[in-house]
Amino acid sequence: MADNTEFAFTREQQELRAAVRGFCADHSDEATVRRLMESTPAFDQKAWLRLGSELGVLGLGVPEELDGSGGGIVDAAIAIEELGSALFCGPVFGTLMLSIPALAAAPDTPVRTEILGPLVAGVRTAAFAVPDRAGRFAADAVTLRANGSGDIWTVSGTVERVVDAGAADDLLVAANVPDGVALFVVDATGFGVERIALSTMDSTRPQATVHLAAAAARLLAGPDEAARICERALQVGAVLLAAEQVGGAQRMLDLSVSYAGERLQFGRAIGSFQAVKHRLADMLVDQEHARSAAYHGAWALQDGTDDPVVAASIAQAVCSAAYTRIAADAVQVHGGIGFTWEHRAHLYFKRAFTDAALLGSAEDHRDRIAELVLDTRNGDYEVAVATGRG
């Protein structure tokens, strides 16, 4: 970034993008994605280890004193954009987007140190089993209950539809305690933990229902800190999810432009027809708008240049809508072949609509932005950023 008023990628960030793109070319080609989405676990553990230990991607945005790679949220967004472009199969959402930011924001305790280090190194994975309502921490929706004190706790209850929970080593869970809601870490492989895999639209992003029956837990943060940590994790997660959506949308746009230049109809490339030109132009506008919104959000959360709630909601309102539109338009541009199982378009289509349902829909975030900019009790905001069509 150049300064406080102008955003530009540095040479180091461009090198990071190139490194992650090269990693994806080696570990996330279409054949690999199709193989992994049918596997258990649905990711390559050796590739995940390399992503953490060798490339340092899992530690981006985590201070070096916490065993991270340093950098900031913008760096993490760059890496995740490339992973999204390649439809990378792995616990990116549960571990990198949510659990690691939550741990980085947690108080400095031995529990945080013991859990965060292996996650950053790629040795272990995690899932964030904390309820949200449109991307905001929903304390009133917490149904788990914790019993204990000091270093000895157990957690019981059920959490539905947890992304990446099926193969996670650790679960970050919010649970009710006598004086509020606290945040705990549960060893997902331990006694009292049952995970039931769910059938979902997007096989590259598995989900599971988690049943806990007096499962041993370690206290990460008490009621005085838990809400702040969860809010921060969900804000960072929303912005990083937006970056992933930008990556997937860009790949669909690139494939559509390439196909329109090659596919002949009536002796002409279909890209020469006005209707196709207009569709591709609209896709480009959506994509550029989404990229700006995603990196505005990442920059705002990293440097404090904007209200984090507004920035995260703008990113999700724009990027969710853009990715679903571009994915649907890409299927149309590809015609009959775009509807087939053999073509990769349907994989991105399913990821787009799955992502749009995580951490709040575009409509949910537009409503939140409207409430924030119209409610003077929350401060004066200038409505200077469009939040997507419709």
CATH fold annotation of one domain: Butyryl-CoA Dehydrogenase, subunit A, domain 3
The string of secondary-structure elements, in order, is HHHHHHEEEEEEEEEHEEHHHH
How many individual helices?
11
Radius of gyration: 21 Å
Task: Show unreliable segments.
Answer: 376-390
Helix content: 40-55%
Shape: globular
Q: Strand fraction band?
A: 15-25%
Gross CATH architecture of one domain: Up-down Bundle
Question: Please, what is the average pLDDT?
Answer: 89
Q: How many beta-strand segments?
A: 11
Structural class: alpha+beta
CATH homologous superfamily placement of one domain:
Butyryl-CoA Dehydrogenase, subunit A, domain 3
Supply the CATH class of one domain: Mainly Alpha
Question: Descriptors for this entry?
Answer:
alpha+beta; disordered C terminus; globular; EC 1.3.1.108; AcylCo_DH/oxidase_C; 7-stranded mixed sheet; 390 residues; flavoprotein; acyl-CoA dehydrogenase activity; Caffeyl-CoA reductase-Etf complex subunit CarC; two-stranded antiparallel ribbon; Butyryl-CoA Dehydrogenase, subunit A, domain 3; 11 strands; 17% strand
